[in-house]
Amino acid sequence: ILSKNKSDILKQLSINFPNFLKKDLSKVIEIILENIKNSLKNNERVELRDTMIFEAKSFKARYARDPRNNQKVFVPDRKLIKFKISKKWQKEINEK
Q1: Please, what is the Cα angle at 20 between 8 and 3, to 5 degrees?
Q2: What are phi and psi of 20, to 5 degrees?
Q3: pLDDT in tens, 58-76
Q4: For a designed S-S bond to 82, which of 53, 55, 68, 75 qualifies (C-beta 3.0 to 4.6 A apart)?
Q5: Where are the alpha helices (DSSP H) in the chain?
């Protein structure tokens, strides 16, 4: 399985946009990711039209049962990120 990380994306952007400095492209990536993160922290939905949606779902604190030893465990408040891909991308990814 192959994966992409920020440095791979930066490398591809610098190839596609040779007139931009790598440090500027890196800053753009950081700004985008920071804005997505801050929006999710503030319970805002992030929608990149025709691409994907990120949404933070909040869960209240509760007591749960540890299945290993059957003891009660406190689970604090938390947020999980819900990710949904657009139908357009879904279709393109599944084309052969």
Answers
A1: 10
A2: -95, 145
A3: 999 999 999 999 999 999 9
A4: 55
A5: 6-16, 22-41, 87-94
